[in-house]
UniProtKB/TrEMBL annotation:
Its EC number is 3.5.4.26, 1.1.1.193. Residues 1-120 form the CMP/dCMP-type deaminase domain. This is Riboflavin biosynthesis protein RibD. Keywords: Hydrolase, Metal-binding, Multifunctional enzyme, NADP, Oxidoreductase, Riboflavin biosynthesis, Zinc. Pathway: Cofactor biosynthesis; riboflavin biosynthesis; 5-amino-6-(D-ribitylamino)uracil from GTP: step 3/4; Cofactor biosynthesis; riboflavin biosynthesis; 5-amino-6-(D-ribitylamino)uracil from GTP: step 2/4. InterPro entries: APOBEC/CMP_deaminase_Zn-bd (IPR016192), CMP_dCMP_dom (IPR002125), Cytidine_deaminase-like (IPR016193), DHFR-like_dom_sf (IPR024072), Eubact_RibD (IPR004794), RibDG_C (IPR002734), Riboflavin_Biosynth_HTPR (IPR050765). It comes from Spirosoma montaniterrae. Substrate binds at residues 189, 209, 212, 292. Binds 1 zinc ion. NADP(+) binds at residues 159, 201, 205, 294-300. Zn(2+) binds at residues 51, 80, 89.
Length: 353
């Protein structure tokens, strides 16, 4: 039964996707041990608001509150132990005299890092950790990547034709994927902190990079490489409608920032600039980036081995000639039909979260 309750906690945690970053997604299920009855559920719903444990305890009916010392809290991540935007969840569990706590994963964030479990154990609350640990790490892959690898979680996405092209001749844009795939991509945008494109894509496609096809979604931060500051100011990227970062060659005079528009200098050499830019974005607490093109930028990530996931749509269309799609280098994780398109998900051959 332990796995059943923890899977429910993981389901709850996932409801916070796209709303809690840079915090992790966390779910909590409180079960009365003797009757195996769920008496409380909660998840971290929005950054800055109550955490999962606090929401779960708040959901317990007054008549069931005396049962907390005889109950187990199934939590997907180690309860926090420090004051941030919310008070420590470990303190709350101690205050409510919860009977036992079981978690998927310990929290590597330096202000927690075992101290949440230590508080519980000091209060003689039994603690178990490691239940469905792989599922917990996958759920919070972005959080673990940011804390442990000091960089954003990187998702490469593109659509290609059946004959392997990502764009028309001369770099002209071509509509490749279908309507369902496009809507799915807008949902993905709402789930990630940022979306990135290269100079050529910004100029040729003039993308908005928003979530207009996914109602209620949060627009990501837009990131564009413009090393030589040649992009025209009338592009949608510079309309001030959502936060936008421009990475440019540090040898140029610094352009003036504007509302929702900031310029970030990077080194001039390509390899150094690439690595430095990722570090700059991590420093801005960007936990995940959806890289949407073009081919030059996607290939730069692939060649460097600096990516965590590929999402590739293959459409039943032929262009005959044009811009070649990147070459996949990874292991396939899943494949499914999205309308007339085929979506394949890949991970690196040696995936280390």
């Amino acid at each position: 039964m332990n796995e059943l309750y923890m899977r429910r906690a993981l389901e709850l945690a996932a409801l916070g996707r796209g709303h809690v970053s840079p915090n992790p997604m966390v779910g909590c299920v409180i079960v009365h041990d003797a009757t195996e009855r769920i008496i409380g559920e909660g998840w971290h719903q929005r950054y800055g608001e109550a955490h999962a444990e606090r929401n779960a305890i708040a959901s317990v009916r007054p008549d069931d509150l005396p049962l907390l010392p005889e109950s187990t809290a199934y939590v997907t991540l180690e309860p926090c132990s420090h004051f941030g935007k919310q008070p420590p969840c470990a303190d709350l569990l101690v205050e409510k005299r919860i009977g036992r706590v079981i978690c998927c994963n310990d929290d590597p964030f330096p202000l927690v890092a075992g101290t949440g479990f230590a508080k519980l154990r000091a209060a003689n609350i039994p603690v178990g950790v490691g239940l469905l640990a792989d599922e917990g790490r996958q759920l919070n892959a972005r959080f673990f990547t940011a804390v442990e690898k000091k960089r954003p979680y990187l998702i490469l996405k593109w659509a290609e034709t059946a004959d392997g092209f990502i764009g028309a001749e001369g770099g002209r844009p071509a509509q490749i994927s279908g309507a369902l795939a496009q809507r799915l991509v807008h949902r993905w945008r709402a789930e990630e902190d940022a979306i990135m494109v290269g100079t050529n894509t910004a100029r040729a496609d003039n993308p908005r990079l928003n979530v207009r096809l996914w109602a209620g979604g949060r627009n990501p931060t837009r990131i564009v490489f413009d090393r030589n500051l040649l992009l025209p100011p009338n592009l949608h990227l510079f309309d001030g409608s959502q936060p936008t970062l421009v990475l440019y060659n540090e040898t140029y005079p610094a352009p003036a920032d504007a509302p929702n528009l900031n310029y970030i200098p990077i080194q001039s050499t390509s390899v150094a600039a690439f690595n430095q830019s990722i570090g700059q974005l991590h420093a801005r607490r960007i936990q995940s980036i959806l890289v949407e093109g073009g081919t030059t930028l996607l290939n730069a990530f692939i060649d460097s081995g600096l990516w965590d996931e590929m999402r590739v749509f293959r459409a039943p269309k032929l262009l005959g000639a044009g811009v070649k799609a990147p070459t996949v280098r990874g292991q396939i994780i899943s494949r499914e039909r999205i309308g007339d398109d085929e979506l394949s998900i890949y991970k690196p051959l040696r995936q280390t979260l």
